[in-house]
């Protein structure tokens, strides 16, 4: 990257993030997101996902600085106490990671159809004390007639270290063109641990007995209640580019997660 990029600084409501926002804009100025060359987010992973959902369609690269509790998608702040990081030098050296989100289309009991994107995962969860009963269909072919579980999810490589990993799903390397289908507390089939699927697979979940056993679907943080059918596939025309410091790029973080002791 050459020259001085126009930067849109976006910060979470947290006090530390708001203080950093004031300092960064005082030094580098502020630009509206649609006119910026780069979006710089100040917060945690939750705020990063909010930014991607709100501004991802602009196609601008996003550089995040961790000012929250969870920052897998963020860069370390790394400024000395009371000082700002050398942002321009870090942007110049930053390495891109291109992410392709999942597209979810959920049909509800009321007949509504709701669409949403997911950069981490789409998850289905039971809404009551009773287990969910769900069938799993891949590219039009039923693979599981009945999955009895607390829930089930489809995770991207970038999201594979998050909720998916907590549910004992696999960690996926970036660029592998694979997604993880992972059950959450599966009761039947007893030994089913999920599957790895080609990223272009069309996955359809049908909720069995949705009135007695209601299920919600969540794409990242967007929840849809009382779903009867959820179709998910990788987006064909939407990508987002995250920027990372070379020594802490996303590929290295995914590898490091698998060798922690």
Automatic annotation (TrEMBL):
The gene is nadK. It comes from Luteimonas granuli. It comes from the Bacteria. This is NAD kinase. InterPro entries: ATP-NAD_kinase_N, ATP-NAD_kinase_PpnK-typ_C, NAD/diacylglycerol_kinase_sf, NADK. Its cofactor is a divalent metal cation. The lineage of its organism: Bacteria, Pseudomonadati, Pseudomonadota, Gammaproteobacteria, Lysobacterales. Belongs to the NAD kinase family. Its EC number is 2.7.1.23. It is found in: Cytoplasm. Involved in the regulation of the intracellular balance of NAD and NADP, and is a key enzyme in the biosynthesis of NADP. Catalyzes specifically the phosphorylation on 2'-hydroxyl of the adenosine moiety of NAD to yield NADP. It is an enzyme of class 2 (transferase). The keyword Transferase applies. NAD(+) binds at residues 45-46, 120-121, 150, 158, 161-166, 185. Gene3D superfamilies: Probable inorganic polyphosphate/atp-NAD kinase, domain 1, Probable inorganic polyphosphate/atp-NAD kinase, domain 2. The keyword Transit peptide does not apply. Keywords: ATP-binding, Cytoplasm, Kinase, NAD, NADP, Nucleotide-binding, Transferase. Signal peptide: none annotated.
